[in-house]
Amino acid sequence: MAKKQIHLAAHFPGVNNTTVWSDPESGSQTDFASFVAFAQNAERGLFDFLFLAEGLRLREHQGRIHDLDVVGRPDTFTVLNAIAAVTTHLGLGGTINTTFNEPWELAKQFASLDHLSGGRAAWNLVTSSDAFTGENFRRGGFLRPEQRYDRAQQMLDAARELWLSDGAPIDHHSDQFDMVGRFPIPPTPQGHPVLIQSGDSDAGREFGAKTADAIFSRHGSLESGQEFFADLKGRMGKYGRRPEEITILPATTFALGDTEAEAQENGHRIREAQVSPQTAIAFLEQVWGRDLSAHDPDGPLPDVDPDPGAEITRGRVRHEKDPVAVANRWRELAEAKGGLSIRELIIETTARQSFVGTPRQVAQQMDAYVQADASDGFILVPHLTPGGLDEFVEKVVPELQDLGSYRTEYTGPTLRDHLGLQKPS
């Protein structure tokens, strides 16, 4: 029986504490040369695609720009169309919000990218109920959370109608959108872009099972990955879809070394650089809703409980809606781990799934994970811009190929070819 093949994608790093800006190898997140170097290296590694995150507004923390944000997210479509000119096979994914955009313009932008790249466009659909961001995009600020996926579905339905219209007249009317006319762009090489989705709520999973070609999963451990894999693919039958029509890709990091001990040391060094003392306090304040600057990041968690009604950070944050419950879980975790300090706890709770070891060990870990149906592959989130993929491509990719679970060449020109997907009709 042939081994299941691993899919790899890469997230271009550039904003938030994932990127280690203090590293001497860290470069610009806005210079086009950085995008070129990153994309061409991913293509050398035969990756399916790269994707760019979305940043519509800088977060504010206690009335100031959040310490972990960096001014500089160039326009997604501008960057991807430029990358298309310096790559040949690599898929090009853009994170574009369904809450703050309109289908006619968005469909035209993605259709243009798919034509200009020869069929390599992908759309990472995200929703938002963030009033802070929405102030600049919608009258009234935002949609209520329960309306987000309804608008997302209507947005996708409208965009698909445009992409597949082949010049036929459009007369589309729904709760959210009204469109009349003929779409000005002919059918694209892929029919329409590959659709990526990342929602993890029940509504998000249903939306993904119904619509997505790829899922950006948050489930990093083997057990939670297997549970998510089985649940998401188990939902697809009701929509007339087969499990192989969705590629599940959890985000992951990696740390390499010539020995396992050296790799562990490198991994620890990276995590400490990602979570500085001030970063640890900022993350804690997001949950506690209080000014905790007087607390020692190398000391214990605060005795005081969070303020559930406080809004100390404006913009997207990582934590659940119940800060008291989060604080209680963190206290239990800190105690169970032998009395973790604030900084140690934040390192523990914000870490992504990470593969650590020699190149051969990392390849074997990834292969075992995919063969056990915990995912179909991975989205790598490197800690350096733009050279974060270099060592992986040079050392781990050949090991994956040696294991027989990774391609040795691209077998088609489009992203749908890379993912084994049929052209929609």
Automatic annotation (TrEMBL):
Span of domain Luciferase-like: 24-372
Region annotation Disordered: where it falls in the sequence: 294-313
Coiled-coil intervals, chain numbering: none
Keyword Flavoprotein set for record: yes
Signal peptide region: none
GO molecular function, one term: oxidoreductase activity, acting on paired donors, with incorporation or reduction of molecular oxygen
Keyword Oxidoreductase annotated: yes
EC number: 1.14.-.-
UniProt keyword terms in alphabetical order: Flavoprotein, FMN, Monooxygenase, Oxidoreductase
Binding site for FMN: T95, Y149, S201
InterPro entries xref list: Diverse_substr_monoxygenases, Luciferase-like_dom, Luciferase-like_sf, NTA_MOA
Family to which this protein belongs: Belongs to the NtaA/SnaA/DszA monooxygenase family.
Name of the protein in its database record: NtaA/DmoA family FMN-dependent monooxygenase
Organism for this UniProt entry: Pseudonocardia broussonetiae
